[in-house]
TrEMBL record:
PANTHER family: PEPTIDASE S8 (PTHR43806), SERINE PROTEASE APRX (PTHR43806:SF65). This is Subtilisin E. Pfam families: Peptidase_S8. One of its GO terms (biological process) is proteolysis. PROSITE patterns: SUBTILASE, SUBTILASE_ASP, SUBTILASE_HIS, SUBTILASE_SER. InterPro entries: Peptidase_S8/S53_dom, Peptidase_S8/S53_dom_sf, Peptidase_S8_Asp-AS, Peptidase_S8_His-AS, Peptidase_S8_Ser-AS, Peptidase_S8_subtilisin-like, Peptidase_S8_subtilisin-rel, S8_Vpr-like. It comes from the Bacteria. GO terms for molecular function: serine-type endopeptidase activity. Residues 175-482 form the Peptidase S8/S53 domain. Keywords: Hydrolase, Protease, Serine protease, Signal.
């Protein structure tokens, strides 16, 4: 490598001095291992014709939207007319979809106006051009992933942990006549917990006729507990399968063949089972339920409607259809102990869930079990007005007792970094009805077990507050939750659900208001979104306190920062307010912080920071809280310029001329870390083809070489026009042609590490290599340098893993980017060339640029290698610059 030099200038001089180079590899982070791995994953570039499930969103309002705008439920004849009109428009495009090789899975008109399609990924962009199509969304498979566990006597039963029997006893609220849809794997209606006969023989008989109409005495309007339901999937369905498994086979019998939905339904609304194996009929009191071998659910007299969207194995893409059904059948509460990862508010099932809230249904959804990396919280829990549920550890023998369970997925929502205003509930070793046992129970752990506890409380709250809208019920669940959770954080999961306070409160505290297709929903949180600045960060929101009681109430307001919050100042428009009966008061809330106190996005593997906490609203002994969140990003302000000697008339880099590069960080909030690459590829901005930008609209790509230990490491850099939330939600593929035949010999790709290694996303972006001849996958040994809420990813890989050496080191490369929402972009047929041992442009790799200083770097520009490799110029990457094009300065060579 050619020697280079770097120096800091103590003023904003355009003529920087030069000094010694930075050490190569300082910013690289090691992965857990390197070398071959066993995985079913493949680089997306290697499978361009792979089929995916998409929801084609059509123009026009679904039934829920029309009813919300009308402010009332419409007559059946009118809703039927709306559905017929929408279906006619949908039918007009289904033929064109089939002509492109697509298969229509279902049509929806109630909570969502869309067509569910399975089609080759390469055909997605063509769907956006069809008449009447508003957008196209790739559907991430949803999972129901709680697992059975061995018993642990230290785990406190959820009803005991939350004090639910005391609520039944003191209020009489047990969920009677409240309609609850459980979107899951179905329900074993023969179990005694749901009024079934309670024998294994009864289960075997029912299971053998799972596609036939169920016994109306067990499922139907005349049944004691299960008033209806539907199977959208059929037993053989698996959205991640192949062949016939990809096609749902709906029927009227939501018989469970996995056990997850049965367990969830029991936690939510099981009747309980006596020691003699009979259905418990009451009374629902502290003494009455003590000692039952299968404890009742939180709302033991609610009406259950199981909606089966899973087959007997695998994943599902049918969540939106089930929400559509629930809205059409006027459910009071929807429970979804399922989800994907990297959820966004505009995901189809999140939109449908938000529409359901606007239409009057309380929607509760699992946060997910992917861990505490940012942006892992899954849809549909990211829908507007939906209450996502995290898990707390209720097992005293396990580390972190009473804190958030380590598997519980963290927010915020992808795309707009909005707060997913949620709550937490016990999620470790939760006992409930066991499928096929007749009377038995099983313990499971996960947010899927925590979610039905909150849905049960929602059913009790709906019964207690019959005049409240769905969004107000949701707000009550959040605002009455206890923040007495070790390490409390609105991002990690919010407060612990408090059934007694949710049922008894007469005060509603509400925050942000959002317009969804079906109307307006109000949430129980204040989202200040992503804020980027070199100086001050801030914003203004408002909260509303409503007194539904019969007496005036005086409230005192204060604020409390969360454990992980960066320093900030929250100001309230009033510290004390009296609200008359059946009246409301609106309070302004301002949040400000200095960008310089936030820190760099390169400080850790994710680069995520938060300013978060709660606004505390107290009245006597009663204390409510409203969570708030800002996602701050401190900006550097690095600009780059190059000059060759003798100076060309137009400036810039001249082949064969001594060249100096100047980096200046004028007015940045913090010192910058920049890296210099040989720029090889460029692309113009284009409108995202799907549901909005997710950081895959390619702008530029480059490459550099550094020596780490004894081996050369090649680092690819990709800059995009738009911003991602989590880079692990996307995938960036670099095709590398090492033998000059015009086809890729290796594909270097960066995506979610857990997804590739274990089939379970974990929010870490790792670099892998695929051999295109054998299909074998290897780990590079490096994590990608790719902060959250950014637009540049740096992907290290050893030269040896590329199969190149100094004797024949020149290779060609091109790049494709794949968005988490299904969009993709490439540099078309353009390839760039590079030789790590004889680079056309050679400069320091890592450069520090202090605040209000300039740094000079010498660049060796080889006329011979420029003619051979034809680089576009230099690409200076500064990850802490503002997201988008400013994170990569492009300096052309002439």
């Amino acid at each position: 490598m050619t020697a280079v030099s770097v120096a800091t200038v103590l003023s904003m001089s355009p003529q920087p001095a030069l000094a010694a180079p930075a050490t190569g590899g300082d910013q690289l982070r090691r992965a857990r291992s390197a070398g071959p791995i066993s995985t079913s994953a493949t680089a997306r570039m290697a499978a361009p014709d792979a089929e995916v499930n998409v929801i084609v969103q059509m123009t026009g309002d679904p039934v829920a939207t029309v009813e919300a705008k009308a402010g009332k439920d419409l007559p059946t004849a009118e809703t039927d007319r709306i559905r017929t009109t929408l279906r006619t428009r949908q039918d007009s495009v289904t033929g064109r979809i089939r002509a492109r090789g697509g298969r229509v899975v279902s049509l929806m008109q109630s909570a969502y106006n869309g067509v569910h399609v399975r089609i080759a990924r390469g055909q997605i962009e063509a769907l956006t051009a069809l008449p009447g199509v508003e957008s196209v969304h790739v559907v991430t498979p949803r999972t129901a992933s709680d697992s059975a566990d061995s018993s642990d006597s230290s785990a406190t039963a959820p009803n005991t942990y939350l004090g639910v029997p005391q609520v039944w006893q003191s209020t009489g609220h047990t969920g009677r006549n409240i309609k609850v849809a459980v979107i899951d794997t179905g329900l074993d209606h023969t179990h005694a917990d749901f009024g079934g006969p309670g024998t294994t023989a009864a289960y075997d008989t029912a299971r053998s006729a799972s596609a036939a109409s169920p016994d109306p005495s067990l499922i139907g309007p005349r049944a004691a507990r299960i008033k209806g339901g539907y199977d959208f999937a059929g037993d053989a369905y698996n959205s991640s399968g192949t062949g016939a498994a990809l096609t749902p086979a709906p029927d009227s019998n939501p018989m469970d063949c996995i056990g997850h939905g049965t367990h969830v339904s029991g936690v939510l609304a099981g009747s309980g089972v006596t020691s003699t194996g009979k259905t418990y009929r009451g009374s629902y009191s502290v003494s009455g339920v003590a000692g039952l071998p299968v404890a009742p659910g939180v709302a033991p007299q609610a009406d259950l409607y199981p909606l089966k969207i899973f087959g007997c194995t695998g994943t599902s893409d049918l969540t939106t259809e089930a929400i559509d059904w629930a809205v059409a059948h006027h459910m009071d509460v929807i429970n979804m102990s399922l989800g994907g990862v990297y959820g966004r508010p505009d995901d189809p099932d999140a939109v449908a869930a938000g529409n359901a809230v606007a239409a009057g249904t309380v929607v509760i959804a699992a946060a997910g079990n992917a861990g505490q990396s940012p942006y892992l919280a899954g849809a549909p829990g990211t829908g507007r007005g939906v209450v996502p549920v995290a898990a707390v550890n209720n097992a005293a023998s396990l580390p972190g007792y009473r804190g958030y369970a380590p598997f519980s997925s963290a927010g915020p929502a992808g795309g707009d970094s909005s707060l997913t205003s949620g709550v937490a509930a016990p999620g470790v070793l939760v006992p409930s009805a066991a499928i096929g046992t007749g009377t038995g129970a099983v313990e499971m752990s996960g947010t899927s077990s925590a979610t039905p506890q909150v849905a049960g409380v929602a059913a009790l709250a709906v019964q207690a507050h019959p005049g409240w809208k769905a969004s107000r019920i949701s707000a009550a669940l959040v605002s009455t939750a206890s923040t007495d959770v070790p390490g409390y954080s609105p991002v990690l999961g919010g407060g612990l659900i408090d059934p007694a306070r949710a049922v008894s409160t007469t005060t509603a505290v509400e925050g942000d208001s959002y317009r969804v297709p079906a109307g307006r929903v109000i949430t129980a949180g204040l989202s200040f979104g992503l804020q980027e600045s070199t100086s001050m960060l801030g914003g203004r929101r408002s909260l509303t306190i409503t007194n539904t009681g019969s007496r005036p109430v005086t409230y005192t307001l204060s604020s409390r920062a969360a454990t992980n919050s960066r320093p900030a100042t929250l100001s309230l428009g009033a510290r004390r307010v009296t609200v008359r009966p059946h009246s409301s008061a609106r309070i302004q809330v301002s949040l400000r912080a200095r960008a310089s106190t936030v820190g760099s996005s390169l400080n850790d593997a994710t680069g995520f920071h938060e300013i978060s906490g709660t606004v505390v609203i107290a009245s006597g002994r009663d204390t409510l809280q409203l969570p708030y969140l800002m996602v701050p990003r401190a900006q550097t302000a690095v600009t780059a310029s190059a000059r060759s000697t003798p100076r060309a008339a137009a400036g810039g880099i001249r082949a064969g001329r001594p060249t100096s590069l100047t980096l200046t960080n004028r007015g940045g909030a913090l010192a910058a870390a920049s890296s210099v690459y040989t720029w090889g590829l460029a692309d113009r901005s284009k409108d995202p083809t799907l549901s909005g930008g997710s950081g895959h609209d390619l702008r530029a790509a480059g490459v550099q070489t550094m020596r780490v230990g004894s081996q050369p490491v090649v680092v690819f850099a990709v800059n995009t026009w738009d911003r991602w939330s989590s880079p692990a939600a996307d995938e960036f593929d670099v095709a590398v042609d090492t033998d000059g035949d015009g086809t890729a010999d290796r594909i270097v790709f960066a995506t979610d590490s857990g997804l590739v290694r274990r089939g379970a996303p974990d929010g870490t972006t790792e670099v892998f290599i695929q051999n295109t001849d054998t299909g074998a996958i290897s780990a590079s040994g490096f994590l990608a340098i790719s902060p959250t809420d950014a637009s540049t990813i740096q992907m290290p890989v050893t030269a040896a893993d590329l199969g190149i050496g100094s004797s024949a080191g020149t290779f060609s490369y091109t790049v494709s980017g794949y968005g988490g929402n299904g969009g993709e972009d490439s540099f078309d047929s353009r390839w760039a060339r590079y030789n790590p041992w004889s680079p056309a442009l050679d400069a320091a790799t890592d450069i520090g640029v202090p605040i209000n200083r300039s740094v000079g770097v010498t660049v060796a520009a080889s006329a011979v290698e420029i003619a051979r490799q034809k680089p576009l110029g230099l690409m200076v990457v500064t990850p802490d610059n503002r997201s988008g094009s400013t994170q990569a300065a492009l300096l052309p060579v002439s």
